[in-house]
Amino acid sequence: MPSERDGRDDAAPDGPPCAPELVQELLRQLDKAVRLHQLYPVTNPTYLKTLDALRAAFGAVWEETGVLTLQVTETQLTCGDAVVLDEPEKASDSLPWTLFKDGVRQLTLSRGFEDGEVAALLDIIPKVRRSLDWEEDVLTLLWTQDFEHLKYRYVDTVSSEGVPLDPSATPGRWPAVTVQADTREAVEAARRLREAAGAGALEGMLRQAAPPDAEAALARAEAMRHLRDGIAREYEADLRCDVTDALLDIFELQREPAVRLEAARQLDALMLLHLSARSFGALVHLLRESALAVERAPAMTAEARDVMAQLGARVGDPALLAPLLEWVDGADDRPSAGMVSELLAHVDAGALGVLFHWGAESRHHDLRTLYAAAADRLADAAPAELVKLVAAPEEPVALEAIRRCGMHRLESAVVALVKQLGHDAEPRRAAALAALAAIGTPRALSGVERALGDASSALRTSALRVLAAGTHRPVLPRVTAWVQGRDARDLDANERRALFECYGTLCGDAGVPWLAGQLDGPKGFFKRKSDPETRACAAAALGRVNSAAAREVLRLAGDTDEPLIRQAVRAALARGSDS
Q1: Which of 122, 176, 289, 317 satisfies CB 3.0 to 4.6 Å to 166 for a cystine?
Q2: Among residues 163, 178, 124, 173, which one has the least CA distance to residue 146?
Q3: Which is more confidently placed, 170 or 352?
């Protein structure tokens, strides 16, 4: 009897366990899911919707039976005595032929398969369809997954050396051929025979070509070298690039608009396949050659040109580019820096967010450098897209966008940056404040005033210094009320000093009398103890005023006994003389 993954040999029932129409719909949804699995990443909404439809089709079957057994022939899948899938052509995209040619004769699915194991089957079927003779077959891939809700029976098509099915066997029963008792044994036997067949063929060729004399030996060595070179070229050749070149030849040489448009659409579909399969080299080759083909192709219709122009836009789609760059960052044999740079040359401004993210998150310095260079190019070309990313939900993306807005001094980003001053995250507020300071226009400085009410003392201090550096006089009434109010006493030393210096920068001679009073301290019999730090701050503010009246006040206060105040007065006078 043929082997089965769980070791049971119970025969399938003669009648179908559920309505054949339900099984037919299930197989239709399975085929659709396999095709979309090849085209889109697993996070794509279209693919996820199809996967939900497939699970719903399984649910309809499980309402009638808990176990579904399918018999496999060369062109059909049957459930009991009902044909549920009929594909007459033995082609690579035929599910019955894909299973039958590798020895699978029966599949048994049970309730629960659709939850965690269907995704593994969707991975296996495309691999087998495009696999070569020496690569793993469907039996090997099914065995390596160790399915719990999928059982299969098979015949060993390798060890039986092509023996036909038993002609005397009862229709619908298993053929009387030798089969392996264990799946692992069958897989290993298949591999050993394939390796032995390849080695034997090469040895026979060499023996037939073995001449006795030295000249013939040299010829044999040359032939071996030529053979090795040919094998190396075969392994290095990429058939996907050959397909691309063939389509581009059609696009260039065929002037019929319908033919050229169809070739362009096929190139678009091929690029999606390269993206989903992470075929980086083939993807870069397609983008490079298609750009050249558009320049060379004569008399191109507008529709065909639009399709070709969208190739680069597809690569820049964040939903497609982000998984690709994630794979590049984690791949052991990642593409060269030149190939990555060539790919990034084709993306548009829509990719800025992805480039910012991986520019911060990539583990490789050379990749971060490439992403930064591409982001520079796109930010210069599309400042509006850069401004949009200031409010991005991902903090690394938003911080980089804010930094670049300040670096480029984008006046158009002021409104967006001021809004970020109200964000919950302090790093984002600090970055927005720095960007507004770098822009430095009156509009930007007006936005900085919002940071004076920030919960962080460090940000309030920075805002005061920015306003003082920009000599933003419209904020003077607010600063005056603050510095002369009782709240100023509760500030820490850095913030209090920044407040006094901002006031001194903006008030001019009108503020000298009040600052002189603060520097001299309280007078009279009932005076309270003076605060040396406040008096030192007043000296620093008078140094910022730097008028004749302010310098006179500082000179009169220079003989004080307080070291802190004396040092502050000297620094203020030195600042005035330097100015």
Answers
A1: 176
A2: 124
A3: 352
Which two structure tokens, joined as six digits, stand for 544?
A: 């910022």
pLDDT digits (tens, 9 = 90+) for 199-256: 555 555 545 544 556 677 777 788 888 888 777 776 666 677 888 888 888 888 888 8
**What percent of the residues of the chain are helix, what percent strand, and what percent coil, each to the nearest 5?**
65, 5, 30
Q: What are the angstrom distances between the C-alpha of 420 and each of 214, 432, 450, 545? A: 83, 6, 10, 33
pLDDT reported for residue 189 = 61
Nearest alpha carbon to residue 342 among 308, 312, 305, 383? 312
For 556, half-sphere exposure in the C-beta direction (CA atoms, 13 angstrom radius) is: 11
Q: Read off φ and ψ for residue 129, nearest 5 degrees.
A: -65, -30
| Confidence grade of residue 134 (pLDDT, cut at 50, 70, 90) | low
Question: How wide is the angle at C-alpha 97 spanned by C-alphas 92 and 99, nearest 5°?
Answer: 105
pLDDT for the residue numbered 448: 94
Contacts of 379 (CB under 8 A, 6+ apart): 352, 385, 386, 404, 408
Residues 281-304: tens digit of each pLDDT: 888 888 888 888 887 777 778 888
What is the Cα–Cα distance from 407 to 372, expressed in whole angstroms? 14
What CA–CA distance (Å, rounded) separates 485 from 288? 67
- For residue range 386-410, what is the model confidence (pLDDT) as tens digits? 999 999 999 999 999 999 999 999 9
CB contact at 8 A, 412 and 440: no
CB 344 within 8 A of CB 374: yes
Q: How far apart are CA 394 and CA 160, in angstroms?
A: 59
Element (H, E) at 110: strand 104-110
Name residue 55's amino acid. Answer: R
